[in-house]
Amino acid sequence: MRILPAASGSGIVFRRTDLDGFEIEATSSNVARVSYATSLMKKGVLISTTEHLLSAFIGLGIDNALVELNNLELPILDGSAQPFVEMIQQAGIRKQRRARKYLRIRRELEMREGNKFIAVYPSKTYSVSYSINFPHPLIGKETFQVELTNGSYLRHIAAARTFGSREDEQAMRNMGLIRGASRENCIVLTRDDIENGPLRFPDEFVRHKVLDLVGDLALLGKQILGNVVADRAGHAMHTALVSRILRDKTLWEEVTFAETPAERETPFRAEAAASSSL
Ligand SMILES: [Zn+2]
Asked: Catalytic annotation on 52?
């Protein structure tokens, strides 16, 4: 995988170098299927597991980038956004001249599905409050609340790893995903413990859910100004929220500010190799 600079206004675009450079924009209209990971599809061409890289872009304030891939799945690396953050920081970040446009939420939207809940409320900044209730002795009920400004994404969210069990691994393989649950690329849960401690944060699980949510909401195509509240949601509900927001133009408006930060891109290329070892 390589990340290349992109012109102002182009957004995040994936390019399959193994398929004649076929391009897929990271937007809600290209969302394909969502279960363990979020996938994009255009004209039958798939890009899988986009959420961690897109999350890193939002956390770093990157608006425009071209992501080249030579297969359908983004590298999972250590299961967090941290390696992406580091490679982008090494490549550097450049301000572009055009003022950034935000999607400002004007009125609330709440969605429920059984005991799952997701909502967005008007706010001057982008903040997230996430709750999970996971039947495992080390997890249980966790809530994490964060305002995604002033580097708090980089300090509190980027390093939180995904988690899974050996059963998930088999299910993912059955779905054709290359990655498995290994000690190198996720927190591996056993029945009442984890295989590869220690945790990076005592509440690493819910922090990773915030990471996923931020990555899925990147499919709005713009940085959002709103307070997102989620309880036991997942990729499917995150992306459903995105398409509901985009469909109803009375929910939001596009704004720029007098002192809006400019759009940003990575000026030099950054590379990461896929790791799918077990
Ligand atoms: Zn994830």
From this structure: no
What is the CA(259)–ligand 1 centre distance, in A? 33
Q: Which residues, 6+ apart, have CB-to-CB distance to 102 below 8 Å?
A: 222, 223, 224, 225, 254, 255, 256, 257, 260
The answer to whether the beta carbons of residues 230 and 173 sit under 8 Å apart is no
Ligand 1 centre to CA of 110 (Å) is 23
pLDDT of the residue at 250:
97
Look at residue 183 in the predicted model and tell me its pLDDT: 79
Choosing from 52, 208, 235, 238, the catalytic residue is 235
pLDDT > 50? residue 112: yes
CA of 52 from ligand 1 middle (Å) equals 6
58 alpha carbon to ligand 1 midpoint, in Å?
15
Is the model's pLDDT at 49 over the cut of 90? Answer: yes
pTM summary value? 0.92
